[in-house]
Predict the 3D structure of the following.
Amino acid sequence: MSRAQPPSDPSGPEGPDRPPSWMGAPGYSPYRDDLPPHAPMPGAPPYPAAQEHPPPPVGRPAAHTGVLAALGAAAVWAGVNVVLVLVVAGAPAAGSDVARLVGALLLPTLIAALVVWLVARHRAWSFWLLVLAAAPVFWVLRALSTLFGV
């Protein structure tokens, strides 16, 4: 029966003053005690400074998007539709055709403006963003109004 060996001493057989054998291995760089606590390691890039945020606005109303801006964004697409109709179909022959085109564009323009305004009313969206948001709403409504003959 073999007896269990006591755990070996990590300092090695030569004594507690001798450094461990791995400290002399190739690529080992000794630890320096002159580094301040929590300092980055030598050669590491410095961390960027924290970004200073401005203080919250005091006394100013919150930014919002107005109804007229949303209506203008939808009206841009109504104007694009008029240009496309004039390019494809040519100038209308009678005044009643113009009134019918304006009437057909009125409902999709107003509904698209309402939808965009409901989405963006509590945010300060720029006009080009409102125009982009109004595009799919306007064109889907315009296609539906043409499909159903409204």
Remarks:
- The helical segments are 67-89, 95-120, 127-147.
- The two ends are 101 Å apart (CA to CA).
- Residues 95-120 form the longest helix (26 residues).
